[in-house]
Each structure stands twice: as C-alpha cells, then as structure tokens.
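Rather than argue in generalities, we have chosen a single entry, letters for residues, whole numbers for local backbone shapes, without further comment.
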Amino acid sequence: MKNTSLIVIAILMLFFSCKEDKKEEVSEKQERPNIIFIMSDDHAYQAISAYGKGLNHTPNIDRIAKEGAIFNRGFVTNSICAPSRAVLLTGKHSFINGKVDNVSPFNWDQDNFAKALQKSGYQTAMIGKIHLDGLPQGFDYSNVLPGQGLYYSPIFIENGEKKTYPGYITQVTTDIALDWLENKREKEKPFLMMYHQKAPHRTWMPEIKYLTLMDSVTFDPPANFFDNYEGRPAAAKQEMSIFEDMDVVYDLKMLDKEGEIKTKYRPYFQKKYDRMTDEQKVAWDAYYDPIIADFKSRNLQGKALAKWKYDRYMHDYLRTVQSVDDGVGEVLDYLKANGLEENTIVVYTSDQGFYLGEHGWFDKRFMYEESFRTPLLVKYPKEIKPGTVINELVQNIDFAPTFLDYAGVDISKDIQGESFRKLVKGDASEWRDAIYYTYYEFPGEHHVKRHHGVRTDRYKLIHFYYDIDQWELYDLEKDPSEMHNVYNNPEYAGVKEDMHNQLENMRTKYGDNDERDKQNLEHYLEVIKE
C-alpha cells in the first residue's frame, strides 16, 4: 500500500512538473515580440511630418517616431513596387530572389522570413497590397489585393477567394487588419501581421471625407522643379514629368461630364470613377466639378499649367496619405487598449520613396535620393528608447534578418541583409559604410534607363547602361539635390576611383555580375514580348 501511494505521488509530481514546464514554454513564447509591419505604397518620406518637411501633418505615424526610432537613412535596393516587396520578404537583392521587375513572376517556394517565423510558432497574416502574383506562402491568413488594387469598392483575395468589399480601400484594409487581430488570431501565440496599404499609389483618389483637406493651401513646387537635366542625359529621357506626362484626367481627376477633355488614359479613370456608389459620386462631383469648370475656362499653358498640375497632384496625394495615417492610429490604439503595446514591434515604411515635384517628377525608379530613400520608423518599448535617431545606412534587405533576430530565430546564411536591432540599441560598430542599388525595368513604363550604383555616407556613383553608357557622381554634402554631375570633374578624381572600387566590392559581396544582368535582361525582354 505504501509503495502504491509513493507511485501515485511520483506520478502526480511528474504531471505537475510537466505542466509547469509547459506553462514556462507558453510563457516564453508569449514573451517573444509580436510584429506589425506597416507598409504603404509610394509614400515619400517628405510627406511624413516627423521628417520635418512641412508639407502635411501625420500625427499617428509620427507617434511611432516619438515613442521609438526614426531612421534618416533608410533606403531600398530597387525602387519599384513588386521587387521591393520581394526583397523585404527574402532579405536578398532582386538579382538573387529573382524578382527584378514588376512583370517577371515571383517564386513563392523560396524561403522568406514569414515562413521562418511561422515554423517557429508565430501566427502570421498578410493583409493588403503585396503585388506578387500567387497565393502568399508563409501566412496562416492572407487577404490581399490583386495587382495594384482599387481605391473604391476594392477587390481582395482572402485565402485564395476573390471578394469585393464596399467602401474605401485604406479603411477596408485597416478594418480587415483589426478584425484579424481581434477575431481571427490565436491569442496565445506571438504574431506577425503584415498590414500593407495601397495608398498613396497612383491615381491618388482621396477618401470622400478628405476631399477638401488643405483646400486653403497652395503648394509651391521645389526649387529644381524646372530642372533642365544638364549633364544627366538619362534623367532627360524619362517619361515621368508632371508637366509633360501627368494625365489631367487619369491623374488629376478632370473627368468632365461633357467629355471635352480627351486624354490617352481617360477611359481607365472612368472605370475607377464608376466603382463609386451614387452617394460617393455626388460628393466627388460636388468637389471636382467646379475645379474642372475652372480648369477648362483658364486654358493654362507652359509654366502656369505645370504649376497648376503640381498643386492638384499634391492635394490629391497628401489626402490619400491622411487616410493611411488614420489607419496607423487605429492599429496603435488597438494595441494600447488590448495590452499589446509593450511587447509589439511596430514598423512603418514604404516600398520605396517618391518624387513630389523634385526634378519636375512624380513616380520613383531612379537612384536619386527621393525615390532611393524610404521612410522608416520603428517602435518597441522593451528595447527602443523614445526619440531615438538613426543615421546609419539601412536598406530593405535588413527587414528579414531584423525580425528573425527579435524573434530568436536563426538567420539563414544566404540572407544578405543585417539585423538593425543593434543600431536601435545604440551599437553602430561594424555597420556597413556603403549600400548597393539596381534598377532593371527598361524598356518600360516611365522610360527610366537600367542602372546600378553605390552610395556611401557622402558620395553616390551611378552607372546607366544598356542603350546608354553614362556615369554620374554626386557629392551629397555639397549637392543634396543631385543637380551637378561631378564624374568628369578633376577635383573628384580620387573620389571617383574610390567609388568605382566601392561599386565592384558591392557587386562581389552580393553576387552581382554582368552575366546575371544579361540573363535578367533576356528574360525581361521575353516576358514583355508576351
């Protein structure tokens, strides 16, 4: 009897010991940080008030900087939508992950950081714009936009099934994200939620509630708006000029009822307008019809037309940004209200930068600063001190290793980025002193030449090639607007030699070479033929 009692006691002790170990295991998992990765599309850092440019006010995005860190030198490796997203998922340059342009397919079968987190016990969700064809891999839940997405009555693909949602895309994306956080995730698990907005991507259709935002403001173009591109022949060949290439109907909403304003892309905007409800159309027309009538009566030409187009562009663009900021606020408020704020990493960034009239342009693609540089703000109360400022050179190849680092997951040796966790903790030792850039989508939309280049703290070297052979060198300290190509200036001979060495070192380090480039070009030309 005594032996039986001892056996029972031993079994009970073993049971409770195992249960306690299980509790500790669950507790440890719960202490691994949640990750909310917020990405907008084409959001210029100039249009975030935390960066101090004074164009608009983004109080909710600014909260991330105030309560965490702001990166003043966040960059991309390839300034175009789909390749940028492939880079952030894989932690590898475009020429390694295979997604070099917007038209070639993306191989979802390759590793990505979401897959690694998922395998390690994270619950994962991808919500909003991803711009990579195929069912997203690495996510327990996905509800994504096909292609670029639509501002009104948007279509989403929820776990492979197409659905149309009533309403405005930015709010719909936020609602889906909040619903997943509240109702669809397993709350005992750490989570990754990739919450990606379409806005402020072209065609910049504002939410009805913001149609009159900043109506009293007239936006003056940047100092180099009427750039003549002297010494920069590749820049002169682009087709992304606000004055010459911005469509007054498709981009600037001059869809007159009489049909008198005829432009190449008018039918495409008509389809976007037709997605609105009758109620939305009434509000839209009440705002835009008087502007259309005024535009038709003035018959603007030359610089007057260019300035008018710039002002209209800025109003629409910044209004779409305001809705993005609202969504960020809703997510931050949810985290705070539900006790998740302390243990959640929140990142805000864009898939690249964007031109807001600099050099006379809209769009991105070039290695010049406004499109090469992207906003980056990160908060994590457990590790990042409020008001931290980071000035080191960070790129979107760094997201994957950073998230894996925070989650305690091994970083694969083939990931090319570096975790910036140590930077926000104040350790900048042994950090990179140069970054590498590639752009491939030529011939193609906006006519930006193929190019690659290297940037250091002060200098930038760019090589445009394929149907051109042009080198550009910039002293960013003396010429931050990149107006003066000093490649052939004898005063910079030593700098030029050093930058050429830097470029070759970068290409060797990351595994880029002329043969890879030739293969990418041949594949691209085949795809666009089809």
